Structure formats: structure tokens, C-alpha cells
């Protein structure tokens, strides 16, 4: 997926952003006005992303704050907030005393205990599976202390999405703090963001190296690493695996979210984009491998301590980060330090992602709707504040007692299924209708380097067909969302599809608008003209050059120098509202 789809699409988006020097809507409007809706769809998906992804940062802050204690709060079940389902060593000892059971091994962190039975059965707070010799004892419906901490303390989770409950005030304050941090990091544009990214983008690598160094010294780490690198070919028949693989690649590279187009639009016109995409591909691959080895080395140790296979301790989604991994830290010396480093790393990674998503929204408003909001939001700082405030309010449903169910709903339908559709139409618009050859000419004109034939083949055939195949495969094997035995009601499933279609609906709306605003005396001529690029009579001729710089602007206010305006269908004679000083500051 990374080689055949992720990297070619990342290259495509970076080239489009640098060439057009516009955000997603402006870029698609200039290359193929008929598909301008695909650009708007990426902005919508970025907005949805900002509203729910920040919740992961919020949970990470909550966990990090709880590492400043003499004892991590998820190591036992003696807290007032623990439920009756919480199961730790003392619970096991109580059952052993009642049922004449003696321990063979003890493990403070596990909810599974290896025991020897002096009798054939035992029951209290559940039932026990028993055979002769050493067996695993697991009370029915029990929770580990880490799982109980996440459910009862962090989430205070309700019984379902039908029961939203009250707002978690601790999480509300942390959520507000997250948005304040994001705001003050990006309010001055890419220059201020870049200074923060120097730390937030590099510190996680230091943590991963520390975790890997510690993980490989633990017993059982080799089993975890083997589980990570050993292929399981039978899973290739599962559509969910392909969807998750595509979503992971798109998320890690930033494809189809509009971030790559937006950030590349700030690059100099002759920036070596070929070098940048190769660096991006290598760094992404190395990061995934480093994180995988670090995580699964520690999971291997956890599996060994519980007497289970590695595959039995691995969970999907938030459970791996906020239940399984904290449980693994309990077995380490100086657990507080490793837990702090891990959750602070997650915070840095999450904040980085928020920067890009918010910048996509702000750039879109500046480029195309600045004339509507100029009288109200003259300064960029005010615009960024409004975007952050709206995103903060839109994310409030995720921090109620039933918010976890809403979070999973958005993640399942908006971040996976709809993302495939957006990526497909984006590559069709750019590489089929504008033309992969034309894009290659533009790259050659900017950098002096002709893209390899491999990329052109991927743009034309491999990437779009692979995306379409995965999407169709996922629909054929579609199953409504369910979590740990909880089945979402029909109205919630319908809500999930509506959320997914909010972004997808932008595509046909943009098609109609693109045709309507194209020149022509009849609808047929308008339709034909809507597929033509705007003001690009010769391939390789840039929209903006260093001899004709974008307009200097004070936020969303007046200009400092003149500019030959580019007329985009639907956005009447809109000059580029971002200053040359910002555009020449490359944000990686």
C-alpha cells in the first residue's frame, strides 16, 4: 500500500500544492473545475478529523497527568471508582482462599492468573476453567485494573450511545487546554508552527528509541517482534485489513486530508519536491517499523507474563494505547517514567496532526472565501481563533459519558470508508482529466527532474484501481459497527453513514457548481469547459512564478502590491490572500 498507493498519491498532492500555490479547493478548481468538490470534501474531512482526533490528545494528557504519582492508578482495584468487575491479584487471592487454590505464578498487572487447582472447580465473582496442572483462571466478565481505569475513571462510560450522560468536566478542561495550545502554535502561520514542529516532530523518535531499547531487553520480546514481522496471509481475504491498511497509510502520509496540498502551497516554486517525497517515504517507513518493533517488543513481554499468545493481548483502536500498553508499563521498573514518555509522545504526535488539519481549513477560507469574511475577520489570528472555537464546540459530544461510542462512530465511517472515496476522485481528477503527463511536465518545469515512469503508471492505473478495489471490497464485506459486544442501534448506524456522506456529498455538489460557473452558451459547452484547466494554455507554465508573486496581505485585509488575478469558476477573481513571506516558508 505504501509503495503502490501512499507514496504516489503523496507525490501527486505535494506537486499540485506547490504548482498551483493554492489549498485543496483552489488547486482542484484550477486543474479540473468539474472536480472542485473533491477539494472541498478534503476540507470537510479535515474538519471532522480535528473534532474527534483531539480527543485522543485529551485522553493522553489525562493519563500523563496521572503519571505524577508514587503509584500508577491503574495497577490495582482498590480505588473508590473501581467497579465490581475489576480483577487484580487481591481478587484472585480471595478466590483462592475460598476455593482452596494455590498460586503457581503471580502477576500484579494481569487479569489472568496461572494457578494450580487442588479441586476441580472454583466460583466466586464468576467461574473458573480448570484442568489438572497449571491452568489460566479468568472470572467471567472481569476487567484488568487498566481497563477499569479507562472505562470507569477516564470515560465514565455509559451503557451505549443512546445514553450520552453528562460532560466529563476534567476532559472538558483538558480539551480546552489542547485547543489553546493549538491556537497559539499556529496563529501566526507556518513560521510560528515550524518552530514548534522542530520539537514535536523529533521528540517522538527519541521516545521510540528509548521504548525499543527497553523493550528488547524484556523476556518474551522476541515473540512480540516475531508476531509483528511474520505475515498472516489468510488475513488478506478480510476487507477490514485492506481498509485499515489504506487508512493507516493515508493518515501517516496525510493523503486525502488536504494537508499535503496546503503545506506544499507554501513552498518556493522551484523547491525540489522529488527529494521531499523520497524523504517523506523513507521517514514514514522507518517510523512505522520503529514504532512497530518498540510496541510489539513490550507486548510480547506482556503476553508472556499473562501466559497468553501475543495475538490474544493485541487490541484494535484506543484499547491498545489506553488499556494494553499502560498494563505493560506496570511490569517495568520506573513505570511512571516510561508511562510519562509514552503519553507525552502521543501528545506531540497528535498536536502535529492538529496543526495540519486546522491549517487546511484556515487556508481554504483565506484563499476562497476571504472576500466574504474580510469585514469580520480582518486578521488571521481572529480567523484561526474562530476555526479552533468551532472545532472545540463540535468535539464536545466526544467527551460525554457516551462520547466514546460517538468517537468510534466517526472514526469508523468518516476516517476510513469516506476517505477511500475522496482519494479515488482526487486521483481521477488530477491524473485522468488534468493528466498525469501534464502533472509530470509541471514537476519537470518546477524542479528540472522528470518523474519516473513508475509514478506515472501508478497515477494512471495502479493507485486509482487499488483504491476502488479496496472500497468495493469493503462494501461487499460491510458489517455495522460494534464494540466489545455492543451493537449500535439502527439510528446510530444511519448517523454514521450521514457523517460519511457529508464529505462525499461535496463531490457532486462541486460538479454541478463547476459546470454552472464554466463559460459557455449551453449546458453542453459548460460541461466540456468544466474539464479544462484554468489559465494554463501551455503545460509547464506556472500559475504563479517568482516574477509574479502572490499578493502581500495583512491577514485577510488589503493588499500591499498588485497581482494579475486568476479567475477560478465559482470564486470570482479571487487573488491569493496569503503573503509571499509565508509561502516561501516550507512547512514539512
UniProtKB/TrEMBL annotation:
Ranges that cross the membrane: 41-65, 171-190, 196-213, 277-299, 337-362, 382-400, 412-434, 454-474, 494-516
InterPro entries, alphabetized: Na/ntran_symport, SNS_sf
Chief location of this protein within or outside the cell: membrane
PROSITE patterns the UniProt entry points to: NA_NEUROTRAN_SYMP_3 (PS50267)
GO cellular component labels: plasma membrane
GO biological process: amino acid import across plasma membrane
Location(s), subcellular: Membrane
Binding locations of Na(+) 2: 352
Any Pfam family the entry gives: SNF
UniProt membrane topology term: Multi-pass membrane protein
Taxonomy, superkingdom: Eukaryota
Coiled coil: none
Signal peptide: 1-17
Disulfide bonds: 77-86
The entry's keywords: Disulfide bond, Membrane, Metal-binding, Signal, Sodium, Transmembrane, Transmembrane helix, Transport
Protein name from the UniProt record: Sodium- and chloride-dependent gaba transporter ine-like
Amino acid at each position: 500500500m505504501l509503495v503502490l498507493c501512499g507514496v504516489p498519491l503523496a507525490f501527486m498532492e505535494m506537486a499540485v500544492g506547490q504548482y498551483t500555490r493554492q489549498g485543496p479547493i483552489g488547486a482542484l478548481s484550477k486543474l479540473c473545475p468539474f472536480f472542485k468538490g473533491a477539494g472541498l470534501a478534503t476540507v470537510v474531512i479535515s474538519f471532522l478529523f480535528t473534532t474527534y482526533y483531539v480527543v485522543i490528545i485529551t485522553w493522553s494528557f489525562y493519563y500523563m497527568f496521572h503519571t505524577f504519582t508514587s503509584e500508577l492508578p491503574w495497577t490495582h482495584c482498590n480505588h473508590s471508582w473501581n467497579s465490581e468487575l475489576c480483577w487484580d491479584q487481591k481478587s484472585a487471592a480471595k478466590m483462592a482462599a475460598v476455593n482452596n487454590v494455590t498460586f503457581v505464578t503471580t502477576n500484579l498487572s494481569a487479569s489472568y492468573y496461572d494457578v494450580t487447582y487442588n479441586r476441580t472447580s472454583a466460583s466466586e465473582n464468576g467461574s473458573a476453567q480448570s484442568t489438572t496442572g497449571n491452568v489460566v483462571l479468568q472470572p467471567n466478565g472481569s476487567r484488568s485494573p487498566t481497563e477499569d481505569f479507562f472505562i470507569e475513571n477516564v470515560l465514565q462510560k455509559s451503557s451505549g450511545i443512546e445514553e450520552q450522560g453528562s460532560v466529563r468536566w476534567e476532559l472538558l478542561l483538558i480539551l480546552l487546554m489542547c485547543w489553546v495550545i493549538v491556537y497559539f502554535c499556529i496563529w501566526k502561520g507556518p513560521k510560528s508552527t515550524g518552530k514548534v514542529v522542530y520539537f514535536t516532530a523529533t521528540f517522538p523518535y527519541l521516545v521510540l528509541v528509548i521504548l525499543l531499547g527497553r523493550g528488547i531487553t524484556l523476556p518474551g520480546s522476541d515473540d512480540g517482534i516475531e508476531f509483528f514481522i511474520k505475515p498472516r496471509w489468510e488475513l488478506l481475504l478480510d476487507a477490514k485489513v485492506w481498509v485499515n491498511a489504506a487508512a493507516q497509510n493515508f493518515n501517516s502520509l496525510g493523503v486525502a486530508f488536504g494537508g499535503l496540498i496546503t503545506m506544499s502551497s507554501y513552498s518556493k516554486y522551484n523547491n525540489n519536491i522529488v527529494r521531499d517525497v523520497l524523504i517523506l517515504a523513507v521517514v514514514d517507513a522507518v517510523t512505522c517499523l520503529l514504532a512497530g518493533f518498540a510496541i510489539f517488543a513490550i507486548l510480547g513481554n506482556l503476553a508472556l507474563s499473562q501466559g497468553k499468545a501475543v495475538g490474544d493481548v493485541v487490541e484494535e483502536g484506543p484499547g491498545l494505547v489506553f488499556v494494553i500498553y499502560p498494563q505493560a508499563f506496570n511490569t517495568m521498573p520506573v513505570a511512571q517514567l516510561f508511562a510519562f514518555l509514552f503519553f507525552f509522545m502521543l501528545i506531540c504526535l497528535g498536536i502535529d496532526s492538529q496543526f495540519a488539519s486546522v491549517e487546511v481549513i484556515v487556508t481554504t477560507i483565506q484563499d476562497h472565501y476571504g472576500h466574504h469574511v474580510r469585514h469580520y475577520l480582518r486578521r488571521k489570528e481572529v480567523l484561526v481563533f474562530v476555526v479552533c472555537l468551532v472545532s472545540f464546540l463540535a468535539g464536545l459530544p466526544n467527551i460525554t459519558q457516551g462520547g466514546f461510542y460517538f468517537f468510534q462512530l466517526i472514526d469508523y465511517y468518516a476516517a476510513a470508508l469516506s476517505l477511500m472515496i475522496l482519494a479515488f476522485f482526487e486521483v481521477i481528477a488530477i491524473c485522468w482529466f488534468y493528466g498525469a503527463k501534464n502533472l509530470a511536465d509541471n514537476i519537470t518545469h518546477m524542479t528540472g527532474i522528470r518523474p519516473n515512469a513508475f509514478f506515472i503508471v501508478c497515477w494512471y492505473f495502479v493507485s486509482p484501481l487499488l483504491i476502488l478495489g479496496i472500497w468495493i471490497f469493503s462494501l461487499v464485506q460491510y458489517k455495522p459497527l460494534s464494540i466489545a459486544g455492543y451493537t449500535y442501534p439502527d439510528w446510530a448506524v444511519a448517523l454514521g453513514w450521514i457523517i460519511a456522506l457529508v464529505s462525499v456529498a461535496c463531490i457532486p455538489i462541486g460538479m454541478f457548481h463547476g459546470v454552472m460557473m464554466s463559460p459557455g452558451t449551453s449546458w453542453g459547452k459548460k460541461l466540456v469547459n468544466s474539464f479544462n484547466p484554468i489559465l494554463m494554455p501551455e503545460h509547464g507554465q506556472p500559475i504563479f512564478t517568482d516574477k509574479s508573486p502572490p499578493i502581500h496581505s495583512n491577514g485577510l485585509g488589503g493588499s500591499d502590491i498588485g497581482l494579475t488575478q486568476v479567475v477560478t469558476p465559482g470564486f470570482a477573481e479571487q487573488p491569493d490572500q496569503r503573503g509571499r513571506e509565508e509561502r516561501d516558508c516550507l512547512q514539512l
